[in-house]
Write a structure and sequence with these properties.
The protein is an all-alpha fold. The chain contains 8 helices and no strands.
């Protein structure tokens, strides 16, 4: 888009993009960094810029994070849908079980390649947290599609623990009004606990529903 504007004589560009509002947006820091450099020189190739950012931002995890980035964008582009589907994410084609299994592999490789607790580890963990959030939210739909005779290929309790660590990592190192305790949007610091309670209690059904298969029940 930036190159298109430049080619058509645009002299001034303003982007209304507030990072603190963008809960769940992946590779936001790369997007902002890349946009800045293309505004400086819209005709420069983006691939060298991408490598520079990923190598600096993720260090040893860069190869795995680049593979995940390519996988994510390829799936989104090749399975693009009407924009309104973003409001019903369980209908997005690319957010299937194969996607989450592939992401698990990429992030596992990334975290193994950097020192736990390092800045590069935190950067990779931020992106993994967003994927873990999506997996937890979509779990009932994914389980339903899998069928009651099969188990999900993820450890649910381990996923919940990693979600909690990822939320805290985001809260500690980046400002976002959805994750930061006591910052706007009536956030009283209990959002994390509410989410954890929702995810943990979705399998605890009242007696009246006890005879119904768990994959046929969705907790709101």
């Amino acid at each position: 888009d930036i190159r298109f504007f430049a080619d058509n004589g645009c002299e001034t560009y303003a982007s209304e993009a507030y990072s603190y509002l963008e809960a769940g947006k992946q590779f936001r820091d790369f997007e902002y960094w890349l946009a800045f450099h293309l505004l400086v020189d819209p005709q420069q190739p983006s691939e060298p810029l991408r490598k520079t950012f990923f190598d600096g931002y993720y260090d040893g995890a860069s190869p795995a994070m680049l593979r995940y980035y390519d996988y994510l964008t390829d799936r989104m582009v090749n399975e693009s849908q009407y924009m309104g589907y973003r409001y019903i994410p369980h209908s997005l084609k690319f957010l299937d079980l194969d996607f989450f299994q592939a992401a698990e592999k990429f992030f596992g490789e990334a975290e193994q390649a950097v020192t736990p607790g390092s800045l590069q580890y935190q950067n990779a963990l931020k992106e993994r947290f967003i994927v873990d959030s999506a997996l937890l939210h979509l779990w009932p739909w994914l389980k339903r599609n899998l069928g009651s005779e099969k188990d999900m290929p993820f450890d649910y309790e381990k996923l919940l623990d990693r979600f909690q660590v990822g939320w805290k990592n985001y809260d500690d190192h980046w400002f976002n009004r959805w994750y930061r305790a006591g910052q706007g949007n009536n956030n009283d610091g209990k959002n994390l606990q509410r989410q954890l309670d929702l995810f943990r209690n979705r399998t605890k059904l009242p007696a009246v529903l006890a005879a119904i298969p768990s994959d046929q029940v969705i907790a709101f």
